[in-house]
Design brief:
Elements (H helix, E strand, L loop, with lengths): L1 H14 L5 H13 L1 H36 L2 H8 L6 H36 L2 E3 L2 E6 H12 L10 E11 L5 E4 L1 H4 L4 E5 L5 E10 L4 E6 L13 E2 L9 E6 L6 E9 L9 E4 L11 E4 L3 E10 L6 E5 H10 L2 H4 L17 H8 L3 E7 L1
Parallel strand pairs: 8-13
Antiparallel strand pairs: 1-13, 2-3, 3-4, 3-15, 4-7, 5-6, 5-15, 6-7, 9-10, 9-12, 10-11, 11-14, 12-13, 13-14
Helix pairs in contact: 1-3, 2-3, 3-5
């Protein structure tokens, strides 16, 4: 407890510029090396800024009250009504006070609007499905390969497609992704890292936790090798290093960072907040720790904060897998691996092992 209080005091001195150059350099080194300290600095900075905003509003209110007290509004009104000719005299006498009051009133209104506007914006969640309108001619290799059909020449048909990411949770074609990616789709496809596309269908959806489980139904799909990652059963800690692989563009993109909060959007306990830069198309991507344990699944980000994302916790992935009636699976039982094949490997080797298990999701409607 004492150490936490001392750290808070040092953070405040750092943010207020009270540390000497040597102390500042030492503290910045600590921030770079300790993600939990960096998170505390960011949180404390936001707290100080909020306090300063509140103090500024209080000072503005006091100034307005003081100016209002100096002006006898009733006397001015009664004087102005019967004596219109004295308006100019009153303006000349009180113009300084009236001008200051008007200025503060305008500033107050702008400040209130700005705060309300920013508050509303901060409460908005950006889902990271990559929505695009494309002509069939830009997707014809995919459609022809899967459906064996063609569009008449010179008559491209526009379809709405939503792109995202998903990853394998079994060797026989079960894929986990976000519900918001597939919601309302007429047809679903996945594409692997080699560019091969397969038709899929939704076998389970959990809109509340934004989870969907798909099953590859394409006869050309060959079973995968053993899944290299495990699904984490306990909670991750703040500062734990994590990474994700996703499809914000046509080839996979790596994002690295750390768990920055145990709660997600507006305190949602089903999610983590992670310090990873993400883009539309990253939705549904796996979030893994350094040992190859699946921590969660990317689902969105705060629209006013760069370098941050929300991830549904692995607990709810396990619940979704258990929720599928086992008799509907036949021999295709779903169960999480008990041992990771990624532990102890360098990041480059880990990516080599998981890239065949991460898919681009394409939902057409």
């Amino acid at each position: 407890m004492r150490n936490d209080l001392e750290l808070d005091a040092i953070i405040e001195d750092y943010l207020l510029g009270k540390l000497n150059p040597q102390e500042t350099e030492a503290f910045e080194t600590l921030r770079r090396n300790d993600a939990s300290v960096d998170h505390k600095v960011v949180s404390h900075k936001f707290f100080l800024e909020s306090m300063e905003t509140f103090a500024a509003q209080s000072r503005l209110k006091d100034q307005l009250n003081s100016i209002h007290a100096e002006i006898d509004v009733e006397t001015l009104a009664s004087t102005l009504r019967p004596h219109p000719s004295k308006v100019i005299q009153l303006w000349r006498k009180h113009k300084s006070a009236i001008a200051v009051a008007a200025s503060f009133l305008v500033l107050s209104l702008v400040s209130v609007y700005s705060i309300q506007h920013n508050t509303k914006q901060k409460e908005q969640l950006v889902l990271l499905s990559n929505q695009v309108n494309r002509a069939i001619k830009t997707q014809n290799s995919l459609i022809r390969k899967i459906n064996n059909s063609a569009t008449p020449a010179g008559k491209p048909v526009v379809q709405n497609s939503i792109g995202g990411t998903g990853f394998a949770i079994s060797t026989n074609g079960y894929i986990l992704t976000n519900y918001h990616i597939i919601n309302g789709a007429d047809s679903l496809y996945v594409q692997n890292s080699k560019g091969e596309s397969f038709k899929v269908k939704a076998t389970y959806t959990d809109p509340q936790n934004d989870i969907a489980i798909l099953k590859i139904s394409d006869k050309n799909f060959a079973n995968l090798s053993s899944i290299p990652y495990t699904i984490k059963r306990n909670t991750s800690s703040i500062g734990e290093m994590v990474y994700t692989l996703g499809y914000p563009k046509d080839d996979a993109v790596l994002g690295e960072g750390y768990v920055s909060s145990k709660n997600g959007f507006v305190g949602d306990t089903t999610q983590y907040q992670v310090a990873i830069a993400v883009n539309p198309g990253n939705s549904g991507g796996p979030v893994l720790d350094n040992d190859g344990n699946l921590v969660g699944i990317i689902s969105g980000k705060p629209d006013q904060t760069e370098g941050a994302a929300f991830a549904v916790k692995s607990k709810y992935i396990l619940e979704a897998m258990r929720a599928i009636p086992q008799d509907s699976l036949g021999r295709n039982k779903l169960s999480a691996n008990k041992k990771s094949g990624l532990s102890g490997l360098k990041r480059t080797k880990q990516i080599e092992k998981i890239q065949d298990y991460v898919f681009m999701i394409k939902a057409f409607n």
